[in-house]
Amino acid sequence: MKKRLSAAVLIVAMTAVMLAGCGAKDAKEVSGNGDFHKIGITIQNLSNAYWAGVMGKLGGLLDEKGWDYTIVDCKDNSGAQINQIESFIISGCDLIMVHASDAVAVEGVCKEAMERGIKVMCWDDPMENTTANWVLDNRVLGEEIGKTAAEFINEHFTPEDKAQVTVIGYPSTKVLKDRADGIKDGLEANCEDNYEIIAEVDGLEAPEAQTNVESVMSAHPDANVFVGVCAGAMIGSNEALLAEFGRGNIPDYYGVITTDVTQQQLDSLKNDGEAVRAIVGFEGSNLDTARACVEMFERILSGEDFGSDRNVVREIGPITRDNIDEILEGM
Predict the structure, then answer these.
(1) What three-state secondary structure class fits 115?
(2) CB atoms within 10 A of CB 246
(3) Cα separation, 230 vs 206, whole angstroms
(4) What gap in Å lies between CA 146 and CA 151, rounded to an integer?
């Protein structure tokens, strides 16, 4: 398949490679039954390990189908994302998938796409000008992170010896603020008066999370439980604890619990010498999520009616050492 490169190769975590591309073939050459589509995909930021991993698998599945696709990121810039969507409209995409940097900001250009007969899918936000929204209930996701963290806290702490909890969020993004608020609700609902939140810091990407967690640990030497809204929060917190204690020396009552599913997170969960205790995941592995996304593409392109709210809610659940091997197979 002839390719037009649309993003640089990104090295994520250790050896994970993300190639965002656009394939092109004549529909008759690809498929004898006309099952050929052109897809435009714009993501907040492909430097995020979770997105790079899932988009890598998604690109592979679209290659297998012989579809023409482009995957780009807007680097969290809504103006750049609007330009990308406009380019997808001009290029004649059948479907545009938007992981919105600012959902309100892209409503207008998505409406323009819809008016031109292009189907639009939003990943994460319940937008208005879309065919369907593939969403998480981020408050519920946060509550599940808090509940999972509470199980760890209840095992290791008492009202007399409370867990010293740091919440790692990113309140400038509504989705992630909802998750952080849900985490606090989940802790409150499930803990046995045996924790206190000593700090709330930003940590969308791993380096920022590591720096901020190190600052918390310097100010609060007893900080021992770190909960967060994304992969970066987990990876950064774990690295801070590894730097503090050394691999294999982290006390068993120190723990990191967040969401997202990346190879680095799973490797840390499987390794007894690190601080990752559980991950609240979505469909499962990167491949599981990519397959579910392709299924959404197929449903949208088939003309399915998603109802007045257009929202399809994704499934969530904890990943622990009990089910990690199954997840690792699809990463």
Answers:
(1) helix
(2) 10
(3) 9
(4) 9
